[in-house]
Design a protein that fits this description.
11 strands; mainly beta; 9% helix; 39% strand; 3-stranded antiparallel beta sheet; 2 helices
Length: 192
């Protein structure tokens, strides 16, 4: 089951260190180095290089090793075929009461391309172990898709609980910047 949630985020108070600059011409591909990268458009692949995130106060880390990525990809295909390439992980289990506290900020690489945070991130939660999540259906206008000038309205399930039960999850975190957006697919475990 995939459920987005809104308004359950604590602000990340870490200040950006240093000025935002573009990569030098001879720069190496940033992690994950095995994934596609465009030096001119570093956020174009939407794999999360252009923002940092924490979940429950724990850092979201890149899966730098291709073998680890491939092993997780194979596992996730058996658990939920809707979960895409997950390049990020929270290594330590997250307490269920804090698992919905998602904070984001642009990276130095991404700041010139996505800009400062415009609004709270959109987060879709994928329960991978059959956890039962309380949600309610609602109609939501999607301003990025328009028909005859009007935003498309879709139905979605919105999480109504403020915790996650124990188990494995994938989060699709969409950073919404003033200039553009990026997305991180993150694998995490909620503590028992």
């Amino acid at each position: 089951m995939a459920v987005p949630f809104a308004g359950l985020r604590r602000l990340l108070t870490v200040a950006l260190a240093g000025a935002a600059t573009a990569l030098p011409a001879a720069a190496q591909v940033p992690p994950p180095s095995y994934a596609s990268f465009s030096e001119r458009l570093p956020c174009v692949h939407r794999i999360g290089r252009c923002f940092d995130a924490t979940i429950g106060g724990k850092p979201v880390e890149v899966i730098a090793d291709k073998a680890e990525f491939d092993k997780l990809k194979a596992l996730l295909q058996t658990l939920n075929s809707n979960v895409r390439d997950v390049h990020w992980v929270v290594r330590d289990p997250v307490p269920g009461a804090q698992a919905l506290d998602v904070a984001t900020r642009a990276t130095t690489l991404g700041l010139p391309h996505v800009g400062d945070e415009k609004e709270e991130p959109d987060v879709i939660v994928y329960a991978l172990d059959g956890q039962d999540l309380e949600s309610e259906s609602e109609l939501v206008a999607n301003s990025s898709v328009r028909i005859n000038g009007q935003p498309v309205v879709t139905q979605r399930e919105t999480l109504t609980q403020d915790f996650l039960p124990p188990g494995r999850y994938a989060f699709a975190i969409k950073y919404l910047g003033r200039k553009n957006w990026d997305r991180k697919w993150v694998f995490l475990t909620v503590a028992r």
